[in-house]
């Protein structure tokens, strides 16, 4: 997948595409339906399936004080878009200049002049331009003049409820992981490179693979039974993970610390994807490292028992094949 960072980096060879525009936070089943349509249109026209996203998101730009957490990091969003057949992603910096464009200006400057879109596929809640003044009616009207086809998809319902990023955040905030998986079409996960930490896990007989998080995730801080994938490895691993700021140590930066059952070897610098299976408990502050160690081992035992209950898995301490 080709990644273009900034509208200023668009080149003549990037003109001509089938385009979708949005935050795509979660790349949930509603988004996936849009991407199916996008790929089908792109195939008919022989053009690259292209998605335009914004950094920061418009909501983050206008409401910097309080914004909901992102379902996916930018890394995970790009990976999910690639997995669903997107050929090109354009990341537009959302700033005062872009926010000030009227709906018509946005179409003419970005969609037509910048990207040369031949077809545009959007959801039923799509709005654009200054003060969200542009809607699908304007997009379709300008398409007739500017030479592109506009298509709008209706809402996807999952078990009678609208599939949306807002609904997904609500489920994740309550650690309702099975229900969130129904909206996502997969288990919720976080991925990132494994970084060196304080090596405290080794002192507590539970070495961890650490992923530093720039933003607070949508999940409650706490301990989870997890399944993990190491980039390039042929096997998956079960484990137990702590998602939090480590209050016992008096720290504040959010970290995902995963103890893998088995011996994965040296994985520093490798990409680790941690898939959340079950919420075990909230993050707690302990009076001593010994009390923390005892609880960590109880958490690991509970996670192992959770794995043992899954059909078809005889040993929770052995890495699993895909």
What is the CATH topology assignment of the largest domain? Rossmann fold
How many domain modules? 2
Secondary-structure-based class equals alpha/beta
CATH class of the largest domain: Alpha Beta
Give the helix level as a range of percent.
Answer: 25-40%
SSE order, one letter for each helix or strand: EEHEHHEHHEHEEEHHEHEEEEEHE
Number of helices: 10
Q: What proportion strand?
A: 25-35%
Biggest sheet layout? 7 strands, antiparallel
Runs with pLDDT <50, length 5+? 314-322
Q: Would you kindly provide a written description of the structure presented here, covering whatever features stand out?
A:
This protein is an alpha/beta fold. The protein has two domains: 2-161, HUPs (Rossmann fold), CATH 3.40.50.620; 189-321, Beta Barrel (Elongation Factor Tu (Ef-tu), domain 3). Helix content is 31%, strand content 27%. It has helices spanning 29-45, 58-62, 74-83, 96-99, 103-114, 136-146, 165-173, 177-184, 200-203, 289-308; strands spanning 2-5, 17-21, 49-55, 88-93, 117-123, 149-153, 157-158, 161-162, 189-193, 209-212, 222-230, 235-244, 255-260, 271-282, 320-321. The strands form three sheets. Strands 9, 10, 11, 12, 13, 14 and 15 form a seven-stranded antiparallel sheet that branches. A six-stranded parallel sheet has the order 1-4-3-2-5-6, sandwiched between helices. Strands 7-8 form a two-stranded antiparallel sheet. Strand 11 (222-230) and strand 12 form a beta hairpin. Helix 7 packs antiparallel against helix 8. The radius of gyration is 22 Å and the shape is elongated. It starts with a strand and ends with a strand.
């Amino acid at each position: 997948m080709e990644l273009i960072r900034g509208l200023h980096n668009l080149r003549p060879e990037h003109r001509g595409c089938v385009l979708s525009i949005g935050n795509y936070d979660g790349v949930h089943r509603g988004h996936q339906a849009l991407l199916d349509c996008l790929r089908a249109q792109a195939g008919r026209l022989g053009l690259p399936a292209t998605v335009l996203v914004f950094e920061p998101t418009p909501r983050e730009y206008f409401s910097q004080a309080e914004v909901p957490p992102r379902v996916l990091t930018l890394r995970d969003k790009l990976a999910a878009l690639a997995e669903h057949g997107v050929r090109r992603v354009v990341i537009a910096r959302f700033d005062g200049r872009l926010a000030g464009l009227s709906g018509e200006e946005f179409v003419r400057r970005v969609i037509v002049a910048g990207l040369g879109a031949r077809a545009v596929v959007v959801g039923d809640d799509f709005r654009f331009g200054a003060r969200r003044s542009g809607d699908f009616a304007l997009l379709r009207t300008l398409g007739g003049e500017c030479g592109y086809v506009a298509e709008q998809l209706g809402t996807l319902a999952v078990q009678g409820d609208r599939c949306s990023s807002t609904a997904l955040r609500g489920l994740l905030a309550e650690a309702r992981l099975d229900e969130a998986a129904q909206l996502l079409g997969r288990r919720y996960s976080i991925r990132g490179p494994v970084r060196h930490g304080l090596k405290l896990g080794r002192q507590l007989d539970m070495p961890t693979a650490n992923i530093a998080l720039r933003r607070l995730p949508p999940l409650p801080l706490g301990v989870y039974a997890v399944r993990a994938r190491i980039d390039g490895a042929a096997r998956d691993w079960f484990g137990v993970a702590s998602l939090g700021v480590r209050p016992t140590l008096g720290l504040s930066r959010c970290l995902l610390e995963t103890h893998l059952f088995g011996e994965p070897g040296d994985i520093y610098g490798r990409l680790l994807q941690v898939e959340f299976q079950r919420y075990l408990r909230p993050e707690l502050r302990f009076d001593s490292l010994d009390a923390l160690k005892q609880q960590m081992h109880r958490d690991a035992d509970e996670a192992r028992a959770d794995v043992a209950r899954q059909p078809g898995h005889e040993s929770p301490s052995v890495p699993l094949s895909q």
